[in-house]
Amino acid sequence: MIDSFNEHLYMNYRIFGKTGLRVSELCLGTMTFGTEWALGTDKEESKKIFDLYAERGGNFLDTANRYTEGTSERWLGEFIKNDRHHFVLATKYTLRDRAGDPNFAGNHRKNMMRSVEESLQRLDTDFIDLLWVHAWDFMTPVDEVLRGLDDLVRSGKVHYVGISDTPAWVVSQANTMAELRGWTAFAGLQIEYSLLQRTPERDLLPMAKQFGLAVTPWGSIAGGALTGKYLKGETGRVPEISARRSDRANTIAAEVVQHAQQLGVSPSQLAINWVRQRDKNLTVIPIIGARRPDQLADSLGCLDFEIPEPVLQALNAASAIELGFPHDFLASDNIRELVFGGAYSNITRS
């Protein structure tokens, strides 16, 4: 049994969206559990990573049906079996389990039910704490997805649901429909978000705030780009997203490295904390992954400090993006004068 409930807890906990669920302030991503993919590691090393996270008070685990061809789920099920109810176990459905078969992938009910049953078998558990829709397929009706997820919750096989890698308008439509029909609504939003990927600030993050969704960003260190490894000439183990190797990315990474040195922290820690601190009105729980225990230990070090406001503002400025239409249009002085009658600065919002 995990001896986490004492006065020496390393992590604090956050309420997950509009639920009563308590999750640790960092989530352990387990896409590296298994050697089937280029980025993975073996069982012994995976267990060391898991043990370190659990010993530090972490209880929130993220996997998916596709991760390392199912090995991630199988190993994770073994690791938590002796204390299953302590952990908040999240997995996903959508991505294919059988190549060439259209009904072994997608958001539709048939794939949902099959995928969940097979995840339960691999995880060797009777229930999934949090089931994510992994990616939107633009073919399945929203009400079909919601009703299927609600049936899973009512059956007790799933406790909560979240949605990942999906446009803001779809999530907004879904949660409004769920509220009107009395179905289970999405409690969390999973997105890519980092100093190199700030486009969620246009619509996804404002939507999450409006609906009270917890946000679990992946890619907080941009596949290692924000550690400065590419500035040193490293090439990486897997093909990288071009945006992470651009001149802009290198400029931002250099800024992160510089401020990290000044603060006496690692670039990874600084990049993760920027995601955690940028908007204090959002519940943001970064997903951190590792191939080695020392990598995880470094990431966990982000909990030991807060970014000073001047550094936070400097990083914001270095990585700023244009929000585009209609955001920049509506924020312009001319439009605000017309919309608020010249009294915008005199109006206080509660």
Can you describe what's shown?
The protein has twelve helices and ten strands. The chain has 350 residues and is of the alpha/beta class. It folds into two domains: 13-319, TIM Barrel; 322-350, no CATH class. Strands 9-8-7-6-5-4-3-10 form an eight-stranded parallel beta sheet, with helices on one face. α7 packs across α8 (267-277).
Considering the chains and any ligands shown, give keywords for the structure.
10 strands; two-stranded antiparallel sheet; eight-stranded parallel beta sheet; 12 helices; 2 domains; TIM Barrel; alpha/beta; 38% helix; 350 residues
Summarize the topology.
Layout: E1 13-15, E2 22-24, E3 27-29, H1 43-55, E4 60-62, H2 71-80, E5 88-93, H3 109-123, E6 128-133, H4 142-155, E7 158-164, H5 168-181, E8 188-192, H6 204-211, E9 214-218, H7 247-263, H8 267-277, E10 287-288, H9 293-300, H10 309-318, H11 327-331, H12 333-340
Parallel strand pairs: 3-4, 3-10, 4-5, 5-6, 6-7, 7-8, 8-9
Antiparallel strand pairs: 1-2
Helix pairs in contact: 1-9, 2-3, 5-6, 7-8
